[in-house]
Amino acid sequence: MPANTTCTLDAWLAYLEQVHPVGIDLGLERVAEVARRLGLLEGRLAPRVITVAGTNGKGSTVAMLEALARVHGLTTAAYTSPHLLRYNERLRLDGCEADDAALIAGFEAVEAARLDGESISLTYFEAGTLAALWVIALHRPELAILEVGLGGRLDAVNVIDADVAVITTIALDHAAFLGTDLQGIGREKAGIMRAGRPAVLGSRELPESVTLAAQEQGAPVKVLGQAFHWHSGTRGGFDWQGTDLEGRSLALRDLPDPGLPLDNASTALQALACSGLALEERRCRQALSELVVPGRMQWLGQWCLDVGHNPHAAAYLAGRLSAQPCRGRTWVLIGMLVDKDAEGVIEALDGVTDAWVAVTLDGERGREADELAARIEAQGGKVACRAASPEAGADWLTGELSPEDRVLVCGSFFTVAAILSWKQAKPA
């Protein structure tokens, strides 16, 4: 980007997509050097830093951490990816999306640092992560919450030492970069842990490599189902029990179901307790009752939007829909990328689906509707429509819905983003 040119956020994003030859380039040497030049490694990013890694549930866990911390009076910064409609969604400061000016200032600082001396190439994600960290450092929040990208040990976020490391789940995804060995994936994601600092493990089914890595690094662990757990409450919500840093028991009663995985809600509560925050039952109820996370079990009338795109996430969606039966039909509008496990997702959703709408996603990783429909039919599913885009599928489906039907939109961030835009464009 030319040094003395005034550029919009869109122009910066277009530039960043062009300056590195590949979209994903795992490794910390380049990122760490630019972070050092930016001064990000000289002190603490915030008095409390929580890093969240995992295959599924990261976004909802970050959102619950943020909401719970804010209702307890903490100033916050939350970094997450990818976004649905606006790049600004990736960085929230005190609950509000960062404005264009803040992000542009971050990109300018990163660009100056990477060109200061020997030029260093950064991917789109790496530049965005460093820009967000620079803005967070400038903002000086009391709590910074950082979502790891697809990896862990070699992810750009991992240049920052967290006070609490969270791992939500480990499942097969991004196989081209992480492989198909769950033990190996677990070790990679466990790389966000730090010696002497607590790690909160938010799944009962993590590979053994995660706990072994924690032992090797000297990170004390809090494991779901052991140090903390939840169970159904008497009023339709849930009760939570956990422990503080010293191992003392904590208990919260009759918390509302936020409409998100309760394993993740329980994990967020435990992570905040490990950060030293004194949890108050009344404030926790308030945060969880008011929480809405775009693209995560997000209901817009008859339409439920969820970015789930692997079998583990699809199985959770199927369970939620089974627990909320409807009088009409359940339609699934699905669009997926070619590098995702379509058969596994279809199999997980088959038992709750009456009819499918397969849609094409554009781009070099996009999957054609006909190819997706063939996989659905091979498993005995009924494909009611093949559409050239998510919007076209939604247009067709609108004419077929009865008032008692419901629609699950899933398979990709791109699918959900398209339907969100489509819904917003519709007259009220």
Structure in a nutshell:
The chain has 428 residues and is α/β, with parallel strands linked by helices. Helices cover 38% and strands 17% of the residues.
Which architecture of the largest domain would the CATH scheme give at its second level? 3-Layer(aba) Sandwich
In spatial order, strands of the major sheet run 4-3-2-5-1-6-7-8
Shape estimate? globular
Structural class: alpha/beta
Q: Which residues form runs of ≥5 with pLDDT under 50? A: none
Could you give the count of β-strands?
A: 17
Helix content: 25-40%
Question: What portion of the residues fall into strands of 2 or more residues?
Answer: 15-25%
Radius of gyration: 22 Å
Number of domains: 2
Examine the coordinates and then state which fold CATH places here, giving the name of the CATH topology of the largest domain. Answer: UDP-N-acetylmuramoyl-L-alanine:D-glutamate ligase
Task: Report on the architecture of this protein.
- The structure is a single chain.
- By secondary structure, this protein is α/β, with parallel strands linked by helices.
- The chain contains 15 helices and 17 strands.
- It has 2 domains: 9-290, 3-Layer(aba) Sandwich (UDP-N-acetylmuramoyl-L-alanine:D-glutamate ligase); 298-425, Alpha-Beta Complex (Protein-Tyrosine Phosphatase, Chain A).
- The protein has an 8-stranded mixed sheet with strand order 4-3-2-5-1-6-7-8, with helices on both faces. The protein has a 6-stranded mixed sheet with strand order 12-13-17-14-15-16, with helices on both faces. Strands 9-10-11 form a 3-stranded antiparallel sheet, covered by helices on one side.
- Helix 4 packs across helix 5 and helix 7 (182-189) packs parallel to helix 8.
- The model has no long low-confidence stretch (mean pLDDT 92).
- It holds the Pfam family Mur_ligase_C.
- It is an enzyme of class 6 (ligase).
- One of its GO terms (molecular function) is ATP binding.
- Belongs to the folylpolyglutamate synthase family.
